Amino acid sequence: MELPGGRSVSAIATGPEPAAEFTFIYAPGAGSNVNDPSGRFLCRDLASPGVRAVRFQFLYQEAGKRAPDRPAVV
Fold this sequence. Notes:
Elements: E1 11-14, E2 22-26, H1 37-46, E3 51-56, H2 59-62
Parallel strand pairs: 2-3
Antiparallel strand pairs: 1-3
């Protein structure tokens, strides 16, 4: 998935495209990733004629970091 600034993250779509009536976006929790078993199961089971499921990797995970960058202190 392309992001502003020329960056990109991994994303996996399951279900009909582009004519799905609904799209469910799955964001993996802390310590997890785009391939976690819960996300795979949920997105596979949600995929039906009217629902498309998309799960994605956060930028810090794409970069191989264990946690998001801390906000700058001013």
